[in-house]
Amino acid sequence: MINGAHVVLYTRDAEADRAFLRDTLGWAHVDAGHGWLVFQAPPAEVACHPTDGEPAHELMLMCDDLDATRRQLAGRGVEFTRPVEEARWGRVTALRLPGGGELALYEPRHPRP
């Protein structure tokens, strides 16, 4: 029935963030018309976490080796906005998108589906 998910990043600079996904992360894409790029995202998983605050959503990019991925992305000029945090479920940091947004980047330590 459901065959995928479409993630939308609302940004102050869509062109810069599209270039980041295309050039820095090297994600495959198609032009849906008039320069509107749609990217093929890597495989994904979905988890539901409890909260005492307002319900929200978060996009986290995953990698197998956080230290190596950070070095590779830093070499491409990526700014990291949070130090690496060691959590029970994995290691996590965050990177700045050119449009001003932030994406978490993590190395999972939990079983993966």
Automatic annotation (TrEMBL):
<dbReference type="InterPro" id="IPR037523">
    <property type="entry name" value="VOC_core"/>
</dbReference>
<feature type="domain" description="VOC">
    <location>
        <begin position="3"/>
        <end position="108"/>
    </location>
</feature>
<protein>
    <recommendedName>
        <fullName>VOC domain-containing protein</fullName>
    </recommendedName>
</protein>
<dbReference type="InterPro" id="IPR004360">
    <property type="entry name" value="Glyas_Fos-R_dOase_dom"/>
</dbReference>
<dbReference type="Pfam" id="PF00903">
    <property type="entry name" value="Glyoxalase"/>
</dbReference>
<dbReference type="InterPro" id="IPR029068">
    <property type="entry name" value="Glyas_Bleomycin-R_OHBP_Dase"/>
</dbReference>
